[in-house]
Description:
Bound molecules: 3-methylbut-3-enyl trihydrogen diphosphate, magnesium ion
CATH superfamily: Decaprenyl diphosphate synthase-like
CATH class: Alpha Beta
Order of helices and strands: EHHEHEHEHHEEH
Number of domains: 1
Shape: globular
CATH architecture: 3-Layer(aba) Sandwich
Number of helices: 7
CATH topology: Undecaprenyl pyrophosphate synthetase
Strand content: 15-25%
Oligomer: single chain
Strand order of the largest sheet: 3-4-2-1-5-6
Amino acid sequence: MSVNYPRHVAIIMDGNGRWAKARKLPRALGHKAGGDAVRKAVQAAEVLGLECLTLYAFSSENWKREEEEISDLMNLMRRFIEANLQDMIERRVRLKIIGDYKAFAPDIVAKLEDALERTSGGERTLAVALNYGAQQEIIRAAGLAAEEGAVTAERIEKHLYTADLPPLDLLIRTSGEVRLSNFLLWQSAYAEMLFLDVLWPDFDEGHLRAACEEFAKRERRYGGR
Ligand code: IPE
Ligand code: IPE
Ligand code: MG
């Protein structure tokens, strides 16, 4: 592994709907294929030696979608946990959730909390953004920081969901859209970014490897020279 390889990669997993549309399939099948791509991405992160992979799975704005699609996504989440928990424990992947997941149905909250607990000994982290919005995260952290005294960047960072994760190195968005859609706004201040033309269900280990290699070539300056 190159010394310049990223430790923490985050992905805005976009394009499930367009993937399904291109195949004349219902959107639900696009999300299902997206779930398979998640499983592959977690394995690829292990192969590539990433310390943390953060995936945007459901934004605080995704509640605006039709009820049927939301319910498909929730069912997918239930099935995903059931099908992958044992494997995550065996591979020593620690699950972390960023976002207000307690707004989900009680059975999902229970499943997630069980998974959090049973994977807590893992060495690498899979952080999943659920009911996540970066603006809400910053407002919450700033409020907690203010309770402690003067609001400083250090105090805010301490209260972000990502406080215990390595700094974000690389942010990838699939599907060709070039926007952040309220994802990791604070954390991406100096992250490298990559916008890929691939739809999320088609994303595989080769794409992640190429992204990490592109990252390794970039010169990060943090405002210096
Ligand atoms: C990303 O795929 C998955 C979620 C937002 C949950 P989309 O459903 O946004 O797919 P497109 O953007 O319509 O293609
Ligand atoms: C961002 O994708 C959210 C996730 C990938 C979970 P969206 O498809 O919701 O974002 P917009 O609506 O195109 O900005
Ligand atoms: Mg989308």
